[in-house]
Design goal:
The chain has 426 residues and is an alpha+beta fold. The protein folds into two domains: 2-117, no CATH class; 165-250 and 264-420, Histidine kinase-like ATPase, C-terminal domain (Heat Shock Protein 90, 2-Layer Sandwich). It has helices at residues 2-25, 30-42, 51-60, 68-80, 85-113, 120-213, 218-251, 262-281, 301-310, 328-348, 388-398; strands at residues 315-320, 354-361, 364-371, 402-407, 413-420. Strands 1-2-3-5-4 form a five-stranded mixed sheet, with helices on one face. Strand 2 (354-361) and strand 3 (364-371) form a beta hairpin. The chain is rod-shaped and about 150 Å long. The two termini are 78 Å apart. The relative contact order is 0.06.
Length: 426
């Protein structure tokens, strides 16, 4: 505003002086020139809002040889503004033509008064040089400044867009990190349940049997004591393996200073989760994100059933179809379903008979664990949190399978699962 006011005052002073001079030369009252010069020069205050109007005013007073500053500043503002280039070109051409005409006539008059008669080419060359000197520089400078402004605005908008995009990516990385932490907690809880519940359930059953026969049959009591020790060692081995995996994962996390970017930490967690999921789809990891070498498989079903038999359960294992190798995730899920089902029989139906069926079908593996009603044996007093069936359903559903459980008409309980063989073993 200060610049525009200063330019307007100078333009008013110039237009008034030139208007008075023009009026004196043509025998007109000098006050008329001043009256015309004041509003014409003051129009420069409107150059930022209405640059076209300012240029039109400068063109209109060109025949009176007024408003050189008005014309120069107006053309510069017009070229630097967002006015369409066609309008800028037309107005600049009109200003150039007016300046050419006025300069040509004035130059001839001055030369005639001095008694000098130059050639026509001298008059044309001088006129063109004056007109271009008053018109071309402000227009070219205005075009350059306008292009630079647009470039800066474009870069600023692009920077703002990138900042918003980075903010969205940070929010998404934070959501992924939360999701990854929840998935990790669920996986650890499921593994702890599978490892501890089954082994400890068998240990409790054996301990109860040991207590019952300790005085009557020392040999059988010694055997049961050995089985309890084996169960405890197996549980500890599986816990150590799982803790080893967690320890290996935590070794790759480098401690950061408090000033480090939180987004990088969140992105790293999300990248680890994504890598686990991608690797799992390729067969490199199981459905819980563990390495392929960890966890049991279908080959261990016979030993699993044997452990339940050793605990006093009457359980049968039947296998249908041609045996073949499945993906690690498929085999581990199938094993865990049978393991949890047998654990539930130990908990809720002591002394009941159980039957485990495994069927190798084309494109899938089917499992069924069914037990009859309890024979009224003493309850082992094992606690139940209701997470076993939920964990089995989650495991099977994660692989796109079907899980069904419920009581039978005979008073027992049945657990069935069909797992698609989408990930074949190498």
């Amino acid at each position: 505003m200060a610049l525009d006011v200063a330019l307007a005052l100078v333009s008013v002073l110039e237009c008034v002086l030139e208007g008075v001079q023009f009026a004196d030369e043509h025998g007109l009252p000098g006050a008329l020139g001043a009256v015309v010069g004041v509003p014409a020069g003051a129009s420069l205050l409107l150059r930022r809002r209405w640059p076209v109007a300012v240029v039109l005013v400068s063109i209109a007073i060109t025949p009176a040889e007024m408003g050189f500053l008005l014309s120069i500043v107006g053309l510069y503002t017009l070229a630097a503004s967002e006015v369409p280039r066609r309008i800028t070109a037309v107005l600049a051409g009109a200003s150039l033509a007016g300046t050419l005409i006025v300069t040509f006539v004035r130059f001839e008059q001055d030369m005639a008064q001095d008694g000098y008669q130059p050639g026509l080419w001298v008059v044309v060359a001088f006129t063109v040089a004056m007109a271009l000197g008053l018109t071309a520089p402000p227009v070219l400078l205005g075009l350059y400044v306008g292009a630079r402004r647009r470039l800066v605005d474009s870069l600023r908008e692009r920077a703002d867009g990138l900042e918003r995009e980075l903010s969205l990516l940070a929010d998404r990385a934070e959501e992924r990190a939360v999701w990854a932490r929840n998935e990790e907690r669920t996986r650890i809880a499921r593994e702890m349940h599978d490892v501890v519940a089954h082994r400890v359930s068998l240990m409790v059953v054996h301990a109860a049997a040991l207590q019952a026969v300790a005085l009557k049959d020392p040999e059988k009591a010694s055997k049961n004591a050995g089985l309890v020790g084996d169960m405890g060692r197996q549980a500890l081995t599986e816990l150590r393996e799982m803790l080893g995996v967690l320890r290996t994962s935590s070794d790759g996390v480098v401690a950061e200073k408090p000033a480090a970017a939180q987004t990088q930490r969140l992105a790293a967690v999300a990248a680890v989760a994504s890598a686990r999921v991608s690797a799992g789809a390729a067969g490199g990891h199981d459905d819980d994100g563990g390495p392929v070498g960890d966890g049991p498989c279908l080959d261990g079903l016979a030993d699993l059933v044997g452990q339940s038999r050793a605990a006093g359960m009457a359980v049968e294992l039947s296998v249908e179809g041609e045996e073949r190798a499945y993906g690690r995730r498929v085999e581990r899920t199938a094993y865990r379903v049978v393991q949890e089902a047998l654990t539930n029989v130990h908990k809720h139906a002591p002394g009941a008979k159980a039957q485990v069926r495994l069927a190798h079908r084309e494109g899938e593996v089917a499992l069924q664990v069914e037990n009859g009603p309890s024979d009224g044996g003493a309850d082992a007093g094992l606690p139940s949190g209701g997470n076993g069936l939920v964990g089995m359903r989650e495991r099977v559903s994660a692989l796109g399978g079907v899980f069904v459980s419920g009581p039978t008409e005979a008073g027992g309980f049945r657990v069935s699962a069909v797992i698609p063989d989408r990930v074949r073993a190498a």
